[in-house]
Structure formats: C-alpha cells, structure tokens
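Worked example (supplementary).
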Amino acid sequence: MKLEKKYLLIASFVLVLGIAIILFTNSLNVAAVGEAVSCCEKAVNGAFCQNSPPAECDSNFRIAPTSCESTSYCKQGTCFDSQEGTCLEGTPQLVCQDNGGVWDERDADELPQCQLGCCYIGDGAAFVTQTRCKKLASDFGLETNFRTDIKSEAQCIASAFPKEKGACVFEQEFQRTCKLLTRAECFDLEATSPAANVEFHEGFLCSAETLATNCGPTEKTTCSETGEVYFTDSCGNLANIYDAAKIDDKEYWSEIEEKSESCNPDANNANSPTCGNCNYLLGSLCKEFERGNPQTTVKPQFGDFICADLSCEYKGKTVEHGETFCADSPGSEDNLPGSEYFRGVCYNSEITIEPCAGFRQEVCVEDDIDGFSVAACRVNRWQDCVAQDKKADCENKDKRDCVWNENVESLLSDENGKLLIVNEEGKLVPADGKEDRESGASCLPKYAPGLEFWKSGRAEEACAIAEGNCIVKYKRNLFLTAFQWDCVENCECLEDEWGDLRNRMCVALGDCGSGKNYVGREGFNKIEDAITITKLGENKSEG
Amino acid sequence: MGVLKERGGQVTIFIIIAVIIIGIALSIYLLVPRAETEAVFDATNPAGFMQTCLEKEIESTVETISSQGGSIVPVNYILYQDNKIEYLCYTAEWYETCVVQQPLLKRHIESEIRDDIQEEVETCFANLQENYRDDSYTVNLETGKTVVELLPKRIVTRFENYVLTVSKGETSRHDSFNVILNNNLYELSSIATSIIDWEATYGDAETTIYMTYYPDLKVEKLKQTDGSTIYILTDRNDGNKFQFASRSVAWPPGYAESVINET
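After joint prediction of all chains, the assembly is encoded as:
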C-alpha cells in the first residue's frame, strides 16, 4: 500500500480508522440508565412483583414508585406450604398468600416450621421438615420416625439403615414356604393372610437348606430396586447378588451377603457375564440383556440380566457415565460472531447438550480429576477488560477473563486524549512524544463477547472503542525532484499490517471488525472499507 | 407349453388380486378413524364406568399441563418449539435472581387439573345416569366436589360427597368414585420445586446432581438468548415429562454503559 505516490503534493494525511463500527447494535441489553423503576404487583406480561418501568405494570394492580423490596406486598420472604411441609425462600408475600401459603419475612432457617430434621421412611431417609415427614408417611403409606438431633443431609442419609431382612417361613396350603421380608412385615403376614406357623429367620435367605422350605436355588436373575443383578430362588424371592462362581455354593444361598462383600465391589462390573454387582455411581445399572443393545454387549452366563454399561459415545470417543465436557461448537475457538459454548453431559448412556448463556456471556470450562472429565458453563468476565491500564490487573484471573496485548496502540488515552504507552512496570502512562504509537498496550477480552449487532444502537458504540485516528506526516524532499514527498511520521499506518492489527483488536472486543462468522461466512465489510483516508491540508512553512 | 403359459397367467391374476386386497385392507386400516375407547356401562360397577370415561381426559390434561409448566393457560411464558412454557420463577431485570411465581406448585397443578376436567366430570356423571335410566333404573345423584391429588407414581381424582343412588326393585348406593392415573408428575413437580429454589437463590441449577440422585431421571437445561432457561424433566422409564421456564441472573449482551463511557 504505497499511498504516498498518489498524494505527493499534500503535506499531511489523516487515516481515520473506523473498523467495525458500521455493523452492530445493542439495544436490548441494558435498561436506560436513570429510567424510573416501579414495583409492579403484576406486570403486563403476567409476572408478579417485578421491578419495571411503570408502563410495563398492569394498571389493575398496585404500582409503587419504589423497588419491590420496599413494598409490603412484594417483599420477599419464605413461603411455607402447611399441607406439604415445604419452605421456599425468595417468594413475595402476595404470591405466597394468594396461593394458600403462609408467608414470613425471615429466612427459612429462622422459622420453626422450616427446621429440618431426619425423616426415616421405610428403608430410606430424607432431610425435611417435620410436617413434610408426616406428609411423606401419608403419601407412601409408611411409618416414619423424625429426628431433630441430626443436623445435615449427609449425616441423615448415612444414618439410614435398611431394616434387617430375613426369611419369613410359614405354612400355606399344606406347604412350608417362605418370603424374604422384614421382621414386622413377616408378622403382619400372619394377621393379614392365611399363613400359619410363621417364623422369622433374620439374615437368612429363603433358599437356605436348613429352613427346609420349598424355595431352592435357581439359575434365574432379576434387577433389584437398588440396581444390582440378583439371583432369585424358586419362589421368586431375591437371593444374593448374582455371582456365577457361586451358583452352586450352598453357603451363598443360605445367608444374606452385603453388597460390599459380593463380587468385585469396587468396580462397576459393566457387561461382566459373571458378576452382577452393578454400581450406578461408577457407571453401571442392572438391565435386561438385549442383543444389539450397545449397553449390554455380553450375554450373562446365567439368567437374562446384566450390569449395563452406562458410558456414552461422543464423536467417536467414549465418555464415562457422569462425565461432563465442553462440546464442540463451530467458531467458539475463535469466538466468531454467532458462536456459543456448549456443555455435554453423559448420563445413563445418553448425551445431553446444554447451551451456555447466549452471546458468549458464559464460556465452557473443562478439567479432569484423575481422568474423569468435569465441565461447567461459567460467566465470561470480559466486561471491564478494556478499562484496565495495568498488566497485573488485566491478567488477574480471579477477577476477569482478559488478555494483555503489548506492542499495539493503546485503546485507552489520558484525559487530554494523549497517547498512552507501557512503562517498565506494565502500566499505561502518557507518552512523552518520542515513542511510536505501537509502544502501547491494550487489555482485551479473552473470550470476545457476542453483540446484538443486527439491532441499531449500542453495539456500534461498543465497537467504536477500537476506533482510532492515525495522522501521517510527509515532508518535501529538497534533494530530489520538486514533487517528491517523504513520509516522516506514523508511516507504519500506511502498511497493511497496521489495518490488520487494528482489526484484530476490534474482533477481540466482541462481534466487531471484519471477518467470518461461526459458519465460515465472510462479513459484508472488508478491512479496507473501514479505513477512511482524508487529506487534512498542506503547511508550506514546514516545506 | 400352452398349459404352463395358462397357469402362469392365472398366477399373475392371483397376485394382482392379492395385491388389490392388501391395498384395500391397508387403506381401510390407515384412513378410517378408529373408534375411541368408550366407557362400557355395567350397572353393578359405576366406578369402573367413571374410570374409563375420565381416564383419557385426565391423561390429556396432564400431558398439556406437564408441557406448559403446570398451567393449562400459561400467562407469563416463553415460546419454545410452539409450546407456551410458564415461568415458575421470573425476573425481567438483568443480573438479578428471579422472583418465585409458583411457590406451591403441586397444589397449583392439582387445581389446574381439577378445573380443566370438571366439565368432563359432569358429562361423565350425566352419561352414567343416562345409562341407568336407559336400563329402567331410577337414579339420583348428589354432587359434591372433585379433588385431584398428586401422589407418588400416580394421580388420584376423587369425587368427594358424590352419592349415586340407583333403584330397580332394590336400591344400591355408590359413593366411592376414584380415577387413578399412573403418572410421575408428583416426582417431577418435586424436582421442579427444588430447581426453582436453586434458581431463586443462586440464579442457576446444576442438572447433574438430580441425575446422580435419581437414575431414572433425565434433566435437560436449555438456555435461551434472552437469558431464560427451559428445564425439561423426563422419566427415563415411561417418558413422562415436565417442562418449565425460569429467568434468573440473566446477562445482557454487550458492554455496560459505564465501560463505553470510560473509554
């Protein structure tokens, strides 16, 4: 780009760079500063208790020229459902009361009716309120026990112990038969059925030879409620966890064995033909063997059930059950316009893709813990990058997601509009006039945000942050011909690289500048379109 | 040779006729609308008549409600795949946590189902009486109220204080009418309430926690460009779904006013 030949008689030029200021808008994003906000009891869109401009309030309901927190009716508090025994914080008074709840402005942990305790129900436990515990008892038709001395959910669940089961032997239709039950269920049987001579043998299986019942070992298996493969006896009762090696072991068919004492307790045993000790958290679950089903690839040695493999396949790679990962997304590596971040989740052999917040307001981050991938969508903290004038502040990862770029022209200038350059301490300071304009630095977003550039308004202002002027000066060369002018100041602005550099800064600011979008389609404007060249004039005295 | 040709021609005709018959049968099967299951009247079992009469209606209502965030007619909603999905927690503001809109979700769903099926309940009772009258019974119906209750793995619709007295020679009294639908809306609405609690407190909810606790549950979280989030809860065993929306701690696109001014 040797422009000087065209403008030999001109003393100076101005190159006005306005890269990427034409394309974009941002009208939706922020309510105008200073706009009056009222508390609408009900907004025109039907939402209750919204801080909105008065025009958005439903005029048939109360409107207060203050925030909802300052009103009596929309003040948020805890809503207690006296029927269900649940407490929900962040509920406005009127929403709670209109729906039949009991409202209190205090937090849930300050309310006596919201105090949580351990509710033992059946074989399980839940950390709930006392009212909820009673409701669960009625919903499930089970007896409950509520303990207030247990103060955490983990402690509550850990303290739940299944009632000891055993062989409930009885006589029915002249046969000595058996059911695997709890002690209470066993003795209830006597009262509720024609069973006679009921005996309970805690810890024993119905197939135990010593009990002399008509229930014996089989080669059949089934899925238990907890997700393991279990042997079943000839009466249809559960025996122990399926272990092919022990099918003829009389002892294994006599007494109940714990999961932790069964085959391979520390592995998931997915598609093991011999062991049914599945573990959902480790990635397996009891399912019926099905030929052609990728979850059940191996036929069990006995029975029809196997520990199905819950891992997933994503683009030719195996993802373990429970793993989360950053999913592929076109253009997100370069944060191109239209690109977004996605998180993939593998559960139960199924991948679900969760989009992170739009406009790259969230980015996907991924790490692995001992080879187990964990990913999350987290907020993209780019908002104050361009305002940083120190390298240390710019690169403070605890506060923001920015990148410090040196050897570029600073986007910031001092109060007089003077150029800023970087000093030895990595801080932007006013230039003393000797340094060239590329001795500056700029703090730019690490993940360029998206802008609503198709709407007229604020995106244009946002992109204009990278707008700049470069005044190029020429001097007549007295030793050569009368028409020869030599560039003497800011000559680098005449090179292609300068335009490219400015464009890269624009692109890093957001959906600005010239380039491709996420599907690879080139934008309407080229870099050259964003460069305006203006002749300022000639100063003969400098001749 | 001539005999062979003749036989070949017969076979062709048979094939053509067979194809025509199969075509007609298929057309009838595909084009003629199949009759819907009608409630079968049995004078000794009026409760069975009510179960059959209302089952489809309740099922359809539950399906609609489940796909619309718990409401038959969503008021404050987001449109997703042509479905109006009610916001159960909502704020129109940026950066703010949402305000709970439906704190007693289970109760709300129960009342929505009750209100939506009420007309059909009356029609079914009227049909029941009509059937008795057609069988020369004298019928008297005392009406009461309809109660819908979400319970674990089922939805129970009870008709409290509905008393049906029928007489034809001898008199019989029926006062126990229940319609039971197998459905996991109880479980799914409980999960939804927990997610709302997270959204109202933290502005987001982590889906994997729920899937780790409940192997049969699938939770999908779909963020929309306006800052809304759609949650779809699915029971992996029977495909029952419940979907709802929330808008909490939404981030506006673009730069804040202050940053632009500063530069």
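Two points are worth noting when inspecting this output. Confidence is low (pLDDT under 50) at residues 33-37 of chain B. The radius of gyration of chain B is 28 Å.
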